[in-house]
């Protein structure tokens, strides 16, 4: 079996060539790196939730022990289930 040689590819553009943030996402290029952050000001604020919408609403919670996000129904948050 033949070993393949190491290859270096010289591209004419830097990748990602274009980074686009949409609603609630900010993209900042700093020192040649792209950083993506949430922009909370772009999200709508609500003062109440209609009870009929509760079964259809979810939120992300950060589990520090597992170092991962967990998708949780909003209905559990209000009942003390989380």
Short descriptors:
mainly beta, two-stranded antiparallel ribbon, 82 residues
Describe the structure in your own words.
- By secondary structure, the chain is mostly beta strands.
- Helices cover 7% and strands 29% of the residues.
- It has 1 helix and 4 strands.
- The strands form 2 sheets. It has a two-stranded antiparallel sheet with strand order 1-2. A two-stranded antiparallel sheet has the order 3-4.
- A hairpin with a 4-residue loop joins strand 3 and strand 4.
- The protein is elongated.
- The chain starts with 24 loop residues before the first strand and ends with a helix.
- The model has no long low-confidence stretch (mean pLDDT 79).
Secondary-structure map:
Blueprint: E1 25-30, E2 33-38, E3 58-63, E4 68-73, H1 74-79
Antiparallel strand pairs: 1-2, 3-4
How many beta-strand segments?
Answer: 4
Helix content: under 10%
Instruction: Give the H and E element order.
Output: EEEEH
Q: Work out the radius of gyration.
A: 21 Å
Mean pLDDT: 79
Which residues form runs of ≥5 with pLDDT under 50? Answer: none
User: Structural class per helix/strand content?
Assistant: mainly beta
Strand content: 25-35%
Strand order of the largest sheet: 1-2
């Amino acid at each position: 079996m033949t070993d393949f040689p190491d290859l270096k590819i010289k591209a004419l553009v830097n990748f990602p060539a274009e980074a686009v943030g949409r609603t609630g996402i900010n993209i900042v290029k700093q020192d040649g790196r792209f950083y993506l952050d949430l922009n909370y000001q772009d999200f709508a604020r609500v003062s109440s939730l209609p009870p009929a919408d509760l079964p259809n609403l979810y939120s992300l919670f950060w589990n520090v022990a597992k170092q991962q996000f967990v998708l949780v129904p909003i209905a559990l948050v209000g009942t003390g289930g989380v």
